[in-house]
Structure formats: structure tokens, C-alpha cells
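Second attempt. The first submission of Nucleotide PPase had a stray character pasted in from the spreadsheet, which I only caught after the job came back as garbage. Lesson logged: always re-copy from the clean sequence file. Corrected sequence (164 aa) follows.
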Amino acid sequence: MVVDIDEQAIRRSNPQELVSALANAKADALLLCISEPAILITADTVVLYENTVREKPRSEQEAREFLESYARNPVEVVSAIVVVNTGTKKRAEAAQYSRIRFKPSIVEAIDAHIANGNAMRGAGGFVFDDPILAPYIESFEGTIESTMGLDTEVLQELIHQVYV
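This time the job returned cleanly.
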């Protein structure tokens, strides 16, 4: 299901609080549409660059500026997962951080990353698993799944918390 919420109306200065608030808002909106018992899973991700939160770019130019800046400094990816048992309304959530340092040569991949559309799909202007970017990752801390927004180990634990 796709949820239609005004993400720009939900603001927090702390990135972890922001992704949590967004994932919870998505869950709240979807709960209004679900009448049968189910396990509802929502998530949100932002990129933190030099203490500035970056969401999906608003234009290709902004995506280009984001990507060019990653040649200079690492980025942190902040994700939240919310799980709700719609029958009991029991809710659990978790947030995760990961850190990516791109090689300065990432500038060579910007045009291709924008051309394939992935720059406009991901927070901070990139999709971590895009094969175009893979050769330009210098170092990585965290889990690949958390960087992509849905760590399955964390998800299993949250489901267990609301199911029991």
C-alpha cells in the first residue's frame, strides 16, 4: 500500500526523531485503511550530511549538488522502522545509522546515476545498491540492509515484539 502523507509538514531537528515521526505518520495513516488483523510495517530514511538532513532531491540539479558533495565528506544514513499489530494496536520501532564514504571519483558516476533515475528515488540523491555507485564506495559502516532502509534482523525483532 502507498500512503499519502505530507512529509514536508512533519519536521524535527533530530534526524532520528524525524525518521521515526515520518514512519509513525505513515503507520497512522495506513491504520485508517486496514480493518483486518495484520502486521503493518512502515519505514523512512534520510541522509545526514555535515549535520544537514537530506531527503529525496527536489530536482536533478539538487541531486547533482548532493552527489558532488559526497566526494568531499562522508554521509550518514538514518532509518526508522515501525511495526504495528493492527489487531492489538501494539507498536514497536527502531532506528539505525550507517555511514558511507564515497571516493572523490564519484563525480565520474553522477551523470549515469541521474540518468537511470535512482538519484531522484533515494534520500540524499542516491540509492545504495545502484551498481553504478558500487565502485565509488570507499568505506562503509553499518549493515547494507539498514542503509537500504529495512534491516531484516531488526524487522524480525520488531515483529516478535508486537506479535507476542
